[in-house]
Amino acid sequence: MQVILYKNTEDPRTVYKHPIEIATVSATPYYPIIITAPVFKLSIQQRYDEVNYCYVPEFHRFYFIDSVQLESGNAMILKCSCDVLNSFKTDISNLSCVCMRNEYDFNKYIQDDVPSTVKATITNYKLLESTPFEMPDNHANYYVLNTNGLVGD
Predict the structure, then answer these.
(1) Fewest 10 Å CB contacts: which of 9, 51, 80, 151?
(2) Residues 39-77: tens digit of each pLDDT
């Protein structure tokens, strides 16, 4: 079985990742094979300290490398976990669906009784020496109060 080793510097929550290929090596899986969290023993000629991501063509899946263990005799043990976003990116991109909750938008046709957990209130105070509009002369200081917040605060 072949395993393609990569260095991934992108956010793991990204669907389309662009990892840098480091090497293609022979691997022996540990049995029983758990396809979502496989363990591989690699026969290597050099150390691959920078690898953190791999692809197994036989499984058609990308994996995060959770841990690397070096053994004597030029062997390396990789414990992996499936990157479902990159492994199934074509299926995810072709989905047609309705999102029930979104932190940036609201759909009035979908019942949503759950209050938003995102809360932000910004209050600014600024003392002005003069105003851009006419004020009675008996006011010593002028203030402009600007408050921004979400609906329902």
Answers:
(1) 151
(2) 999 888 777 888 999 999 999 999 999 999 888 878 889
Q: Which residue has the tokens 């994996």?
A: 63
β-partners of residue 43 are 75
Neighbours of 53 (CB within 10 A): 24
Within the chain, where are the H helices? 84-87, 89-93
Contact indicator for 144, 128 with CB cutoff of 8 Å: yes
In one-letter notation, the amino acid at residue 95 is L
Distance CA 78, CA 59 (A): 16
d(CA 83, CA 89) in angstroms, rounded, equals 10
pLDDT tens-place string over residues 73-90: 788 899 999 999 999 999
